[in-house]
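Ligand-bound model needed. pyridoxal-5'-phosphate.
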Amino acid sequence: MRAYNFSAGPAILPEEVLKQAQAELLDYQGTGMSIMEMSHRGKDYSAVHQETKDNIAKLLNLPDNYSVLFMTGGASTQFSLIPMNLLGEGQTADYITSGAWSSKAIKTAKSIGNVNEVANTAKEIPTCMPTNESLQFTEGAAYVHICSNETIAGTQVKEFPKTDAPLIADMSSDIFSRPLDVSQFGMIYAGAQKNLGPAGVTLVIIRNDLAEKSPESLPELFQYKHFMENDSLSNTAPTFPIYLLCLVTRWLLAQGGLEGIQKKNDEKAAKLYDAIDSSDFYKGTAKKEWRSPMNVTFRLPSEELEAKFVAEASKKGMTSLKGHRSVGGIRASIYNAFPAEGVDALISFMKEFEAANS
Ligand SMILES: *Cc1c(COP(=O)(O)O)cnc(C)c1O
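Prediction:
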């Protein structure tokens, strides 16, 4: 039996996708081998590579002047590659700090170049994001970095700030969860293991003129330009993770694209937040206007009760509800692939648990 897996990442994948990967594992479309056993330059893998990019372009209505790159090293490696590629000598990059992940991004960037923190709400409780009105950007900044969904705090940017400099967004935990106007961004990036597929591939969508800025002094495999010019195939691409990403993008198109998936996500999140708000026993940890539909964070009256809650839920097949070790509490990650029935099951369990323990 499949668990209701509330893990924040690596996270649940659509069952249809896993079944198809299973069916094709030993013999990919009559080739007598798995896709992971064949050349990354052969025609079968090439078709997967191309389809993944096409599906992503379709999902996002991607303008022609953007490139889809498949990189490795996770979102965390991008924390370094962004300033290495895009923050020139004598330039400043603006960073918005809104939680643990954007804190890591700015910390890494500071060790590489000149960085200005335009806001910091990382320590605020209830958790929140800075308002757009509070942001004062540096004139002529090389770029502005933002995290669209703080996975640990359970907060999400609702409207992206307007910036003169290219806006770069870490969308690791909410990419493809809602419609997106890519033209607002210079670059978006995401480690795959939350909303896209397995760990091992990092999706980067970058405006071509920005990718062109990669300094020649950087090693080639650290340059966005090099990935763009070589279609992410200058060395062996992570073929199996990209294949799974291909299946996930097909699944997303079948869900009605990003509008379709957003509707489902909003329904799941609204039910769960309603269950929290209609009780005095559970307390949401994020300010209402910033609540994430992906990572729902809440507390119980005591840490003992939280531990008991996690343990009893796990016995009922609802796993990984423990909040991040840095903040405690409960975190229910309900990404695109998380089924609505799992949310209903959690809500029933919350009611039972409250009745038995309050
Ligand atoms: C998980 C996560 C990361 C780190 O991703 P890795 O692929 O493990 O490096 C970065 N940013 C956000 C918002 C995340 O949720």
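Residues 16-254 form a domain with the Aspartate Aminotransferase; domain 2 fold (CATH 3.40.640.10).
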